[in-house]
């Protein structure tokens, strides 16, 4: 059945605003004024979802965390069986969903975690889209056996690329080998760079290779990066994730508030201040681009997935200190409610 969302504030993150959205089979099929949408459906049987003045915006996309690590940390006892791990992962998914997150990352996936996530996908047990980044040193064989899910979801699970840790002890040729191997295998590389030398080596490696948009390497850094390095990264389409978010804090609006108030270290050498719209985009359209998903996630646009979050206040209109107190009312994945605030 088609669904129409109306009578609220809709943040599309597109140039075109919308008063209402029409959804069918988990996809946005039309946006426009309420008059336009209701004229479109006319006598059709449609589920009408009255927002009652609340705000609807794109669902959030996790930019860097570890689903299975969170799952393990949630359990008070050791996890000894696959059944226990699956139960813990389902609990972790619920936490992500309660904060409006519909796409999550499993960073540094090994053979053990992969087997469980793959089994959950085969049995259609994943409610969220899960993206694995494999340990480049120990889990390359997983990629060789499972190219079919590299950058392509099957039952809400895909492999995004490789993950590697690089510090100042690595030689230039070693870092270049990591980058070259990833490019040769047509894999995205996510590298956590610990130290100024490691950071510079990674940039130079991709400058030498000349790999651009097709690979979108991701740098996670623990040191300050300079403005001229950011400019060089932009030229080779190297993405950056410098916000040192607490691993288990999934409250995106609280993280946004911390970014805007300067309470979250970002590792960037700049005096530029961001506004709330810039910060929202970090967890929506920019995050979608990071995962090669910008064509079907990150904004509200005809043809994209119906992944929404409905919230009690419009973040573009509240004062700064109220951003952290915005409440998630519903989280919607492919047109289906996967979280409802019990207080609503």
Number of domains: 2
The CATH topology annotation of the largest domain reads as TIM Barrel
> What strand order characterises the main sheet?
7-8-9-10-11-12-13
Name given to the CATH homologous superfamily of the largest domain: Metal-dependent hydrolases
Q: In angstroms, what separates the terminal alpha carbons?
A: 24 Å
* Number of distinct beta strands: 16
> Helix segment count?
11
CATH architecture of the largest domain: Alpha-Beta Barrel
Strand content: 15-25%
Shape category: globular
Tell me the Rg in angstroms.
Answer: 21 Å
Q: How would the blueprint of this fold be written?
A:
Layout: E1 2-6, E2 9-10, E3 20-24, E4 27-32, H1 34-41, E5 46-50, E6 55-58, E7 60-61, H2 67-74, H3 82-98, E8 101-109, H4 111-122, E9 129-135, H5 140-145, E10 157-167, H6 172-184, E11 188-194, H7 196-209, E12 218-221, H8 227-235, E13 239-241, H9 252-260, H10 276-282, H11 285-290, E14 308-311, E15 328-333, E16 336-340
Parallel strand pairs: 1-5, 2-6, 7-8, 8-9, 9-10, 10-11, 11-12, 12-13
Antiparallel strand pairs: 1-3, 3-4, 6-14, 14-15, 15-16
Helix pairs in contact: 2-3, 6-7
């Amino acid at each position: 059945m088609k669904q129409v969302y109306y009578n609220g504030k809709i943040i599309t993150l597109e140039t075109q605003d919308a008063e209402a959205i029409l959804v069918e089979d988990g996809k946005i099929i039309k946006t426009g004024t309420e008059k336009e949408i209701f004229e479109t459906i006319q006598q059709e049987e449609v589920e009408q979802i009255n927002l009652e003045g609340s705000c609807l915006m794109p669902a959030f996309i996790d930019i860097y965390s570890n689903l299975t690590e969170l799952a393990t940390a949630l359990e008070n006892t050791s996890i000894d069986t696959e059944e226990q791990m699956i139960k813990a992962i389902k609990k972790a998914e619920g936490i992500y969903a309660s904060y409006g997150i519909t796409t999550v990352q499993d960073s540094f996936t090994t053979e053990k975690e992969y087997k469980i996530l793959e089994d959950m996908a085969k049995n259609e047990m994943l409610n969220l889209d899960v993206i694995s980044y494999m340990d480049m040193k120990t889990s390359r064989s997983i990629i060789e056996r499972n190219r079919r899910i590299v950058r392509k979801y099957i039952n809400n699970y895909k492999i995004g690329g490789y993950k590697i840790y690089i510090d100042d002890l690595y030689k230039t040729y070693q870092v270049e080998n990591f980058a070259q191997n990833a490019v040769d295998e047509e894999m995205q590389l996510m590298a956590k760079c610990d130290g100024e030398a490691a950071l510079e080596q990674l940039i130079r490696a991709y400058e030498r290779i000349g790999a651009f948009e097709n690979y979108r390497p991701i740098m996670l850094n623990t040191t300050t990066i300079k403005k001229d390095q950011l400019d060089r990264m932009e030229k080779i389409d190297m993405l950056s994730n410098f916000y040192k978010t607490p691993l288990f804090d999934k409250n995106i609006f609280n993280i946004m508030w911390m970014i805007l108030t300067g309470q979250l270290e970002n590792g960037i050498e700049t005096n530029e201040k961001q506004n709330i719209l810039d910060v929202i985009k970090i967890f929506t359209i920019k995050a979608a681009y990071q995962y090669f998903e910008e064509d079907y996630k990150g904004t509200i646009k005809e043809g994209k997935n119906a992944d929404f979050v409905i919230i009690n206040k419009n973040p573009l209109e509240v004062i700064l200190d109220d951003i952290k107190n915005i409440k998630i009312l519903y989280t919607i994945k492919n047109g289906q409610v996967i979280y409802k605030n019990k207080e609503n």
